[in-house]
Amino acid sequence: MKKKHPEHVNLERWLVSYADFITLLFAFFVIMYAISQADMAKFKAASKSIKAAFSGAGPGGTVPMDGNSGGDTANIFEAPEIAGGRVMDLPAGKIHTAADPDPELQEMKERLEESITLELGVSDISDQLHMRFDSRGLVVRIAAKDFFEQGSAAVRKDLLPLLDRIGRIMSKSRRLIRLEGHTDISEARPEGYASGWELSAARAAWVAKYWVNRFELDPKRIGAAGYSHYRPLSEPRETASDGTPVESRNEEWRRARNRRVEVIILNNLYESP
User: Fold this and answer.
1) Alpha-carbon gap, residue 203 to 205, rounded angstroms
2) Neighbours of 223 (CB within 10 A)
């Protein structure tokens, strides 16, 4: 019988697996290199387009920053427009963005809603206040009818608790406050005031003094302005069940809601000297 020789063991089979691994690794880096080159080309194209777009912005494609272009002096109560963020409501075809609301201002808004709803027993907050955010901060419009009597700068006594709720919450903050007074069109030449400008400014000043005296607010935190009757509110359109507009508001109602003060709790913090 022929003697069988022992089977030879191939000790170099690992080279096959190693060669496969090297091939796959090479292919991987080739693909990564190709992707990086494609992105670089896109980046260069985008960079070239941007440079071309801004080539007319001043000498050498730059914007002058030497401060000699004019303009008004900065005012701490006039917050600058902030780019980016939420889309604000504007007429059709126009877009404006503002930064997302500050967490502290968002909290103040919620506390105001809770305070008016629970403490004053108002079921619908819009019956007393209308609040919104814009680029300046939180705007609180006191929407109560007849907040001011015709030709008067003093808030009606029965509405002072509403003013107290707002002032108490603001007194615990370090935000700057801007008060804007308004009149209705029939108060363009009010009795006792030279014009609606003086009356609207007096309304803002009355609220400012009330809060300073009652809550010991630092007067340096508060600014007041008057706009007379030149910034009237647009009338909310009511609709019936069938969707047709309801003209249920008389002229006196329209005028009364424009006798108002708007409170802007600014994004700016008051920094004591």
Assistant:
1) 5
2) 19
The number of domains in the chain is 1
155 is a domain residue: yes
CA neighbor of 159 nearest in space, from 201, 203, 128, 202: 128
Q: How far is CA 75 from CA 65, 138, 197, 246, in A?
A: 20, 18, 20, 43
Tokens (6 digits) for 148: 């001011």
Apex CA 35: angle with CA 34 and CA 38, to 5°? Answer: 90
Q: Does the pTM of the predicted model rise above 0.70?
A: no
257: in domain: yes
Nearest Cα neighbor of 164 from 130, 128, 135 is 128
Phi-psi region for residue 71, left (φ > 0), alpha (ψ -120 to 50) or beta? left
Q: What is the distance between the alpha carbons of residues 88 and 81, in angstroms, rounded to a whole number?
A: 12
Q: Which domain holds residue 253?
A: 101-232+246-269
263, 163 Cβ separation under 8 angstroms = no
User: What is the 8-class DSSP label of residue 244?
Assistant: -
Beta strand extents in 198-241 (DSSP E only): 222-226, 238-239
Count CB atoms within 10 A of the CB of residue 201: 21
Name the DSSP letter for residue 14. H
H helix or E strand, kind and range, residue 147: none
Tens digits of residue pLDDT in 176-201: 999 999 998 888 888 889 899 999 99
- Closest by CA to 78, choosing from 35, 161, 137, 37, is 137
Per-residue pLDDT of 17-48, as tens digits, reads: 888 889 988 888 888 777 766 556 666 666 67
